[in-house]
Amino acid sequence: MPESPARLLISCGEASGDLYAGQLLSRLRARYPSLACFGLGGDELAGQGAELLAHIRDLSVVGLVEVLSSLPRLHRVLRKVLARVDAARPDAAVLIDYSGFNLRLARELRRRGVPVLYYVSPQVWAWRRGRVETIRRTVDRMLVLFPFEVSLYEGAGVPVTFVGHPLVDVVRPAPDREAFLRSVGLDPSRPVAAILPGSRSQEISRILPTLLAATEVLARSHPQLQFALAGATSLSPGSLEAILGQRPMPVLRGQTHALVGAADVAILASGTATVETALLDTPMVVVYRVSRLSYLLGRAFVRVPHFAMVNLIAERRLVPELIQGNFTPERVAAEASRLLDDAGSAAAQRAGLALVRERLGAPGAADRAAQIVQSYLPGGGGGAAAPHVGAIGERPG
């Protein structure tokens, strides 16, 4: 235990990163009860006693074109963070995903001599691989969630540790499916479709109207099917209801895992939610849409065959993904109907999801990440002693 309080900077810009940040800080506080933490995050990070310089609700941006209009605001946030760093230099920094902002922050931290750990890799294996060189120059250690990321960073000469996926520890269905469904006004004897339109306002505006139209198509062919909408806690109150209008569909906030675990099918925006749905063993249809210009600009840089994270982990098209022009109410309804009506299709997808869960690693990712961060803090043993690969010195399989 260090004699003086250690100081840590944590920076994340999205709901999933905020969840991981809160987990990590919780584990670190068990080792450093007086740890002083500040940075960027949301309610999870703040709930662990971190001082927020900006909230994720003001940081999330979707699409290349949309980022351009947000640059002045994000630059002001960066200046605010760096001013705090200069006033009270942290012993280390943990940057979580959010690469457009965090890689720029990493460069500034390196100039100031602050050790940088990057938890949750930018998707450099998917697009803009040139960022690996930026990471090599600015990041002291990568803490990655997927085994396939290790060889990429090792080949580039970047110190890397596979810690596993933190969602393995937190994603659980409701203990009593029937009781949960009754508690939210749904009939346990009828099938349920969970609708997850995303966690950012820009996603909601582009995705939710089409999802609602798809539920109307599905309702005609499956009159017994019930629908419930999962609302991210990071969204402003009433934002989903404004689009939902008079449709009689419950909006459940803070109950996403219970809803998805109880559902017969999930229809969801591409992102971390696909991993959560895989952990809950629920068949899914994945959708996504950005502005046309953002899609055309970004598509030229994408170098992977799939968009959905579960498909990337499985290394095949395990779940249907309907992107941009393919994302129509009729296509969504057709894919969801196949999973609802064809037991073989649902069973085949579930078999693939079991492989995805296996590749996400063992429980304890946040603990392993905290152990490595600790080695960079005063009295923690020194960053050079951090393990190179694997949770407990083993190479991931």
Task: Provide structural commentary.
With 397 residues, the chain is of the alpha/beta class. It folds into two domains: 7-166 and 364-385, Rossmann fold; 172-359, Rossmann fold (3-Layer(aba) Sandwich). Helix content is 46%, strand content 15%. It has 17 helices and 13 strands. The protein has helices at residues 15-31, 43-47, 64-87, 99-111, 131-138, 148-155, 167-170, 177-183, 201-221, 239-244, 256-262, 272-279, 292-299, 309-314, 329-341, 343-359, 365-374, and strands at 7-12, 36-41, 51-55, 92-96, 116-119, 141-144, 160-162, 192-196, 226-231, 251-253, 265-269, 284-288, 321-323. A seven-stranded parallel beta sheet has the order 3-2-1-4-5-6-7, sandwiched between helices. Strands 10-9-8-11-12-13 form a six-stranded parallel beta sheet, sandwiched between helices. α1 links the parallel β1 and β2. α9 (201-221) crosses α15 (329-341). The chain starts with 6 loop residues before the first strand and ends in a 23-residue tail after the last helix.
